[in-house]
Fold this sequence. Notes:
Elements: E1 2-5, E2 8-11, H1 22-26, E3 29-37, E4 40-42, H2 44-57, H3 69-79, E5 89-96, E6 113-120, H4 126-131, E7 133-137, H5 158-170, E8 174-178, E9 184-187, E10 191-196, E11 199-203, H6 213-224, E12 229-232, H7 236-240, E13 244-249, E14 253-260, E15 263-264, H8 272-284, E16 289-290
Amino acid sequence: MWIYLNDRFVTEQEAVVSVFDHGFLYGDGVYETIRSYGSRIFMRDRHLARLRRSADAIGLTIPIPEHRWPALLHEAMTRNDVGHERTDAYLRITISRGPGDIGLDPALCPTPTVVIMIKPLHPPQAEQYRTGVSLIVAQTRRNLPSALSPQIKATNFLNNILAKREAIAAGVFDSILLNWESHLTECTVSNLFFVRAGRLCTPALDCGLLDGITRDMLLGLAREAQIPIDEGHFGVETLTQADECFLTNTTMEVMPVTMVDKHPIGDGTPGPLTQQLHRQFIATRARFLEP
Ligand code: PLP
């Protein structure tokens, strides 16, 4: 694997970051996960804009000028022989505060560390889309936005990792995190939707969740299809009584959920609106691919 580290492509063995890097010492950094369909990157500019917003929120300057990113990401795909008609690419950009003496002051780190990693994209198994997946509601609560905004896609991911550990222990696909008011937020790496009496429901951003790029696209597709939308504050019981449920993120697209806390959702199979929206997603995603 060729990895872009700071200013050049290096081999996996050479891709080494200092133990003084504040990304390692304090989780002080931001990242994005992006994918390609063939050679074209999905919503590249939206992901790069979110990376910039995350960096701005922590006062980190991204040392790569905006105009260089498209060529850099394409070179990373070509060097790793992915991002072509045979293999879609999974791209991860990480920018950390960089190496500096121990201490919290970001000024200790004059040079951020930039890493771009690329690998073949392994989408979820077809069986999971056919049967739907099971979730639990985690004991771990989503970060309080006034303490650490979920809009910052930070390399400190412990909040989500603790909820993921609960899902693993329960033998399910993932966990739903509630907020400080016991309202639904999102899962550990995806946004949450459900359907009630023909209305598409999803937790509002002020519940404390990442403004997912796929979430936003799905809401756009639902508006085009004139499906009524409720973005709001919902308790767990609204979800367990829902007719359908699904998750969205860049790599999964639309993943049906058929069980929450051992309660079947609807009739326990992927719902018709879930499947309709996924078909619509597949039919229209070419609109959102960058050259
Ligand atoms: N929520 C969290 C916590 C995430 O980490 C992610 C994706 O990484 C998402 C939601 C979905 O975001 P997107 O649709 O932009 O991939």
